[in-house]
From TrEMBL, chain A:
Listed PANTHER family: NITRATE REDUCTASE PRIVATE CHAPERONE, REDOX ENZYME MATURATION PROTEIN REMP FAMILY (PTHR30598), RESPIRATORY NITRATE REDUCTASE 1 GAMMA CHAIN (PTHR30598:SF3)
NarG-like domain ranges (all copies): 123-281
Residue ranges the record marks as coiled coil: none
Protein name: Putative sulfite reductase-associated electron transfer protein DsrM
Keywords, comma-separated and alphabetical: Cell membrane, Electron transport, Membrane, Oxidoreductase, Transmembrane, Transmembrane helix, Transport
BP terms from Gene Ontology: anaerobic electron transport chain
GO terms assigned for molecular function: electron transfer activity; heme binding; nitrate reductase activity
GO cellular component: plasma membrane
Listed transmembrane segments: 7-26, 32-54, 127-147, 175-196, 208-228, 248-271
Localization annotation: Cell membrane
Membrane topology: Multi-pass membrane protein
UniProt entry tagged with the keyword Ubl conjugation: no
Keyword Cell membrane: yes
UniProtKB/TrEMBL annotation, chain B:
InterPro entries (alphabetical): 4Fe4S_Fe-S-bd (IPR017896), 4Fe4S_Fe_S_CS (IPR017900), Helical_ferredxn (IPR009051)
GO molecular function: 4 iron, 4 sulfur cluster binding; metal ion binding
Name this polypeptide is given: Putative sulfite reductase-associated electron transfer protein DsrK
Keyword Phosphoprotein: no
Positions of the UniProt region annotated as Disordered: 1-23
Residue span(s) of domain 4Fe-4S ferredoxin-type: 83-112, 152-181
Keyword annotations: 4Fe-4S, Electron transport, Iron, Iron-sulfur, Metal-binding, Transport
Organism: Desulfacinum infernum DSM 9756
Domain of life: Bacteria
Compositional bias per record (Basic and acidic residues), positions renumbered to this chain: 1-18
Keyword Manganese: no
SUPFAM superfamilies, alphabetized: alpha-helical ferredoxin
């Protein structure tokens, strides 16, 4: 499938997802979109992610195959690289923390420049890393800020986060950086996908779809907060109802809210069945989460089985005469 | 055999993807870019399926009727056995960080050589048969059916990956294309669709103990030939032993060192060093191969070939094993051997009889890398070195893929280099250590019919060598891998004429001052030592 078809397909899919609650709410299906869908989505998310992790975990790690990115531990006079070539669990934990929280491998990224000659150079390329950091962390902040809708009283940590996020102190309601950063992050990830020819070539509909979906979620959120305001008191009533398992559906919340909520539900439900599970998968990656110590400690393969080998005896049987003639020691003389 | 285009022609690489989507761009089996198919006699020796005469460029591959079931069952089996495989099928986000990290992509511009697309070749099939979304949404979920065209694509591109793992360094999830390629090659081998350059050495190694199929008496002869050579250069007669019970150490190195220049000079270096320090060691004709082309066939074949090392160590009753300079051999030893064929409880924790150093990092496998062993000797001042004998060599060091990214032996060889030669310059950061570039011919792709792709894949490595060649006058590329020693000379001739290739222990052999040696006038290649050019003439 070529790029434009992939993009159109994903756009249409998100467009349909926007229309569904619009039509549904107009038809009076507020409890379906306000209660049933979110519950289903969250259930699918948790069951789906757990099932996915269990599915991965059921396959063993037969061999110790870390990608070593630094000096091994050998002599006490050669400094080993604890982080990039860990030999114990402590090093692995550090390596994983940096990988998961700071995207360390992505930080290594470089860009190949191919000139006539040929001459090849490798330039620094941190934009993908920066874009990824902005995208993931702003998403996290946005998500945590939303705890305000699911707790009463609102935790002081959420207040603190809101204070930091809105430190510019402009606008009413106060402008949150994270919302804009999320939109910018998604836009960046999309733009590089369509402007870098190689990336465009490898992209699938399932690469565009989550970007459009998240963009639509962030956009409806921003619209609700700053422009087409919805009845925030009723919204909180609904969300608290969900959180306390006493669902209520107040009258008169704008349909923009239902669109937002539905898209978020779709994202939750889609998550375990898509590439988005990389969030869980990165923890299980055998090239990162194992120490490079298989010469020090024997790694066990649970399905190790005996194999057919060509034994020394068979070998000597074939070559005995030649070996004796050449003065090579043999087990049997004749 | 296809003619390789001239370097300036090959250098014109376009990295712009074609107009047609990759799923609709069929493979073209162009001579010079693929390897010959596995011959039936080699498959029969080790009992691999579907032995027959076939040619990858032919329309009809003579596949078994149920080839699709074999392949899909094989995939299921491996998904259940390897978490790596299952995970790497699921979590790629196609961020593209790996794309321009592959030497074959850099040198060919073929988008299916981007690691992400290489993996998508099999991932698309995985989605079709093993995921709900792929079954329902088909190509909208990036899924596609397994057809003969797909299988041919697998063959073409999974034998255009050298399992070098460079992409996995840059992947934010550590997705390792080598792992994916290994699975794909296992599946291809279940249909008899491997390449002969791998199947041949596997069969030879299985029956005769080494890749070339050298028989025991011939192996002894070949080594003894180099005993004479060493005497010629140094005046010292070394005395190797073979299959000797009760030796302290079993020494195993790739057989390439025994029969092909410049590996043979490295072999001479080993023997001179062992003689000088009085190491109680033995060669084995049965375990006469360090390399393991099973790694490039299947996990099972890797285990079947590797088994000889421990079996022979046990039979001979040695205390521990010393391993020579080799790349993929050390991937097998570091990451697979103990798990597959251990525990080596009949051996002792390796201890250098010369320095008393206990190699704690090898306390379970009981196998030590020669660079570790020699670095320890130098550190303790146990050998006398005259680095000026290498003064006419301006040296740089090629980190081999496997010892770098599946082990991390970076400092030991550099420490040795700095003691055996006076002119050493590293290539630019980003092309060495964990980011080192493949020679372009690893993982069993070092065959002549594949020369065009070898030159393409080796271009990034050659490019970095040319940088130090022009900047520092580097004329010698040192390495610790037998495949490197075999394939880097033609690569250098092609892209960077004027740079020669050497093993680390050849330089050690040159610099080593031996007890009772005559006045050395030449190096191990019979080329005059610096300042001895005239005396050399007198000798001749």
């Amino acid at each position: 499938m070529n790029a434009s078809r992939s993009i159109i397909f994903s756009l249409v899919a998100v467009g349909i997802l926007v229309c569904l609650p619009l039509i549904g709410v107009a038809a009076g299906m507020t409890s379906f979109f306000g209660v049933i869908v979110p519950y289903l989505a969250v259930a699918l998310f948790f069951i789906g992610v757990v099932a996915r992790v269990v599915r991965w975990a059921r396959s063993p790690v037969p061999f110790r195959i870390p990608t070593t990115c630094g000096q091994q531990k050998s002599f006490n006079w050669i400094k080993p690289d604890k982080l990039d070539n860990p030999w114990d669990n402590k090093g692995v934990v550090l390596r994983m923390i940096l990988e998961v929280l700071l995207f360390r491998s992505l930080f290594r990224n470089s860009r190949m420049e191919f000139y006539e000659g040929p001459k090849i150079r490798y330039a620094s390329a941190k934009w993908l890393w920066l874009g990824a950091i902005v995208f993931h962390y702003s998403f996290l902040v946005v998500l945590l800020r939303h705890l305000r809708f699911f707790s009463e009283p609102v935790s002081s940590l959420v207040h603190l986060l809101e204070g930091v996020d809105g430190f510019l102190e402009v606008g009413a309601p106060r402008l949150y950086i994270s919302g804009l950063a999320l939109l910018a992050g998604v836009a960046f990830l999309f733009l590089r996908r369509v402007t870098i020819p190689q990336l465009k070539y490898i992209s699938l509909p399932s690469d565009y779809f989550p970007l459009f979906l998240i963009f639509a979620i962030a956009a409806t959120g921003v619209l609700m907060r700053y422009i087409y305001k919805v009845d925030i008191v009723s919204v909180k009533e609904l969300t608290m109802g969900l959180a306390t398992f006493h669902p209520v559906v107040p009258e008169g919340i704008g349909s923009l809210f239902y669109i937002h909520l539905f898209l978020v539900s779709v994202l939750f439900a889609y998550f375990p069945f898509s590439k988005l599970v990389h969030m869980a998968g990165v923890f299980l990656s055998p090239t990162r989460n194992l120490p490079n110590n298989s010469r020090m400690v024997r790694h066990i393969n649970p399905w190790n089985y005996p194999v057919k080998v060509h034994t020394y005896e068979e070998y000597e049987d074939e070559f005995r005469e030649k070996m004796i003639e050449a003065g090579l020691p043999v087990e049997k003389k004749e | 055999m296809a003619q390789v285009p001239k370097a300036d022609e090959l250098a014109k690489v376009s990295h712009r993807p074609p107009e047609t989507p990759w799923t609709e761009t069929p493979v073209e089996f162009r001579p010079g870019t693929f390897c010959y198919g596995a011959k039936p006699k080699n498959l029969e020796v080790v009992g691999l399926p579907n032995p027959r005469e076939w040619n990858p460029a032919d329309e009809d591959w003579k596949l078994p009727d149920n080839w699709k079931d074999i392949t899909l069952n094989g995939m299921k089996d491996r998904l259940d056995k390897f978490r790596s495989f299952k995970l790497f099928m699921d979590i790629c986000v196609r961020c593209g960080a790996c794309a321009d990290k592959c030497h074959y992509y850099i040198g060919s511009g073929d988008p299916k050589n981007m690691p992400v697309l290489r993996a998508e070749l099999i991932r698309s099939v995985y989605r079709k048969y093993f995921t709900g979304s792929g079954k329902i949404f088909s190509k909208y979920a990036g899924a596609r059916a397994l057809t003969e065209r797909v299988l041919k694509e697998w063959f073409y591109y999974y034998y255009q990956c050298t399992e070098c793992r460079r992409c996995s360094v840059f992947c934010p999830y550590g997705i390792d294309t080598a792992e994916v390629t290994m699975m794909a090659r296992e599946l291809l081998n279940e249909l008899g669709c491997g390449i002969d350059w791998i199947a041949g050495p596997v069969a030879n190694c299985y029956m005769n103990g080494n890749h070339l199929g050298i028989q025991p008496h011939a192996f002894k002869d070949m080594i003894e030939f180099f005993v004479d050579e060493i005497e010629e250069v140094t005046g010292v007669r070394v005395e190797p032993t073979f299959n000797r019970k009760g030796a302290e150490v079993l020494f195993i190195t790739p057989s390439g060192d025994v029969f092909a220049d410049p590996g043979t000079y490295t072999l001479m270096g080993y023997m001179m060093l062992f003689h000088e320090i009085g190491l109680d060691y033995t060669w084995s004709t049965y375990a006469s191969e360090g390399g393991n082309f099973g790694l490039f066939t299947s996990h099972e074949m890797m285990k079947r070939l590797n088994a000889k090392m421990y079996a022979e160590a046990k039979r001979l009753g040695v205390k521990w094993i010393l391993g020579g300079e080799c790349g993929h051999m050390w991937r097998v030893i570091n990451q697979y051997m103990d798990t597959m064929n251990g525990p080596a409880d009949f051996l002792e924790v390796p201890k250098s009889p010369i320095t008393g150093t206990v190699f704690e990092n090898a306390k379970s496998t009981k196998m030590v890398h020669i660079a570790e062993f020699t670095a320890d000797l130098i550190r303790h001042g146990k050998i006398k070195l005259d680095p000026s004998r290498n003064d006419n060599k301006i040296v740089t060091f090629h980190d081999s893929c496997n010892t770098s990214r599946a082990m991390g032996i970076f400092e030991e060889p550099r420490y040795i280099l700095k003691h055996v030669c006076n002119h050493f310059y590293d290539m630019p950061e980003g092309t060495i250590r964990e980011k080192t570039f493949c020679c372009g011919s690893g993982s069993g792709l070092n065959t002549d019919e594949y020369m065009e792709m070898r030159m393409r894949g080796g271009l990034p490595r050659a490019n970095a060598v040319r940088y130090v060649h022009e900047k520092h006058g580097v004329n010698m590329l040192a390495c610790i891998c037998a495949i490197d020693r075999a394939v880097l000379p033609p690569l250098m001739n092609y892209w960077v004429p004027g740079v020669d290739v050497t093993g680390l222990h050849e330089l050690v052999g040159n610099a080593l001052v031996m007890t009772g040696e005559k006045k050395r006038t030449t190096d191990l290649r019979y080329e005059p030592l610096p300042g001895m050019e005239d005396e050399e003439d007198d000798d001749v």
